[in-house]
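Human: My hope is that you can spare some time for a protein that puzzles me. I am handing you a single protein, as its sequence and its fold in token form. Could you go through the record with me and say what the backbone is doing? Take your time, and here it is.
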Amino acid sequence: MVWAVCLTAASVVTIRAANDASVAAARVNGTRATPAGEFKVWALDHHHLRVEFSVAAEHKGEAGPTANARDGHGIATIQGYTAIFRSDDADADCRITLKFKRHNLVVTQTSRCDFGKYANVNGTYKKVSTSKPVFRFAL
């Protein structure tokens, strides 16, 4: 009898955890974009996301227009709907916070990332796809 009660309780917890995971994945998975950049995100498990981004910035100076572009990729750690991301190939101090909203992703660069003059990832990115992104970089 005790075994049946434990099995039932474990089943309820497992079903609840599976439902919670699918809700979180549905919110974070996909591609988000602004006119200056794009973030691709895919949940790997409850606490890790695969992230890839590209940003560009144009500056019109005396010598004419110039541009800086930057790509980054890696694994972010997520708690709730906020993830902390450090690109695999960025400066050691570079930290990017991703806050997942219902239809948007709010990205904040919390330290110097040296993406080039005028280029940064700060902004609100609109969800443009819920499909699994095509990643350019291997894990």
Remarks:
- The two ends are 47 Å apart (CA to CA).
- Confidence is low (pLDDT under 50) at residues 2-23.
